[in-house]
Amino acid sequence: MQLFSKTWDLADAFENDSYLVVYCPKIFKQKVLPFGSVASATAFLRVANAIWKMGTKLLRLVWTSYFGDFFFLVEEPTFRHTDLVVTSLFSMLGWKLSTEKLLDYSTICKVLGVEFDMRMSGDSLTTV
Asked: How far apart are CA 43 and CA 39, in angstroms?
């Protein structure tokens, strides 16, 4: 069984978390996520984990999440179906995917600088 991989990367991942609400009540849109403020990175990681969990529990996807990157392994017959399911999930949730990083399925895939090589997965060997 030959495995293929693909990574979905969130475009402008921190943009959706860059709103600030004060008691007035007023809402301010910041240009970037306020990483100087308390727990902003933690808040984004919770959102990424929630997306991962929705895919896992509701759609029964077997995938991983590392910060804003979602990594998937599939066999060739399920390429199109998997693409449809995952891109639909992100679309329904209002998240844009990074188009420059959105590559086709391959036996070699990079996730945040780590390369996964599945060319010998049919022989039960994968290298990282």
From this structure: 6
**What is the model's pLDDT at position 15?**
55
On whether residue 13 sits in a domain, the answer given is yes
Position 17 in a domain: yes
State how far the Cα of 17 lies from the Cα of 68, in Å rounded to an integer: 13
pLDDT the model gives residue 55: 93
Question: For residue 112, is it within any domain?
Answer: yes
Q: What does pTM read for this prediction?
A: 0.70
CA 127 to chain centre: 21
What is the edge-to-edge ordering of all strands in the sheet holding 69-74? 4-9, 69-74, 63-66
Rounded to whole angstroms, what are the CA distances from 11 to 14, 16, 50, 75, 80? 9, 10, 17, 26, 21
pLDDT at 17 over 70: no
Q: Which residues contact 101 (CB under 8 A, 6 or more apart)?
A: 7, 9
* Residue-level pLDDT at 34: 59
